[in-house]
TrEMBL record:
The keyword Mitochondrion applies. The keyword Ribonucleoprotein applies. GO terms for biological process: mitochondrial translation. Belongs to the mitochondrion-specific ribosomal protein mL43 family. The lineage of its organism: Eukaryota, Metazoa, Ecdysozoa, Arthropoda, Crustacea. Residues 37-110 form the Ribosomal protein/NADH dehydrogenase domain. This is Large ribosomal subunit protein mL43. GO terms for molecular function: structural constituent of ribosome. Gene3D superfamilies: Glutaredoxin. It is found in: Mitochondrion.
Length: 183
């Protein structure tokens, strides 16, 4: 078993700016592709630039892409995120497909450094009742039941559906407020 996790910083799960409530904001601000025009280790980066870079730029309009040719150096990617974090990735002898996968990975990341979690659940207001999960209030017979089960597999009839209730409310408002004709 590896012990690499011991050297990672530890912390809790954090979400940037409640991202996803309302609309999603991509966290990748800019990506810099550094490569050599002649070196063989940069072939995958050059192939990506020639064939797929324009498509990447069209699908990610919020990300600025910089190309930086350097002589006799290994290729690399530098990603900069909205929270100020920078991620460096050496792309020596990567194929075009690997470059695409790593760019996709960097575009979907939040920029928060990789860390080991102290707890899987964290809240500022802990509950004295314990952690809720979807199986908290389930019947214990489900644990040993053989499915399909005659009683447990019956559909539950809880009265009218939400759609039926909306139709009834709409019909009631139509009767109370008739449309006034315009003069």
């Amino acid at each position: 078993m590896s012990n690499k996790h011991l050297f990672l910083p530890s912390g809790f799960i954090r979400t940037p700016l409640q991202n996803g409530l309302g609309r999603y904001i991509p966290q990748l601000q800019r990506i810099t592709l550094k490569f050599c025009k002649n070196h063989g280790g940069s072939r995958g980066v050059r192939d990506f630039i020639e064939t797929d870079l324009m498509e990447f730029a069209k699908t990610n309009p919020g990300t600025v892409v910089y190309l930086k040719p350097r002589r006799h150096r290994y290729p690399c990617m530098v990603a900069e995120y909205l929270n100020g974090e920078r991620e460096y990735l050496s792309c020596h002898e990567f194929s075009r497909a690997e470059i695409q996968k790593w760019l996709s990975y960097m575009c979907t990341r939040s920029g928060i450094p990789v860390m080991r979690f102290r707890k899987y659940n964290h809240t500022d207001y802990p509950s004295i009742q314990g952690v809720w999960n979807p199986f908290t209030h389930q019947a214990p017979e489900i644990n040993v039941a053989q499915f399909p089960h005659e009683i447990l597999s019956k559909p539950v009839d809880n009265g009218p559906t939400a759609t039926d209730q909306l139709i009834e409310i709409f019909k009631k408002t139509q009767i109370k407020d008739p449309v006034k004709p315009e003069h």
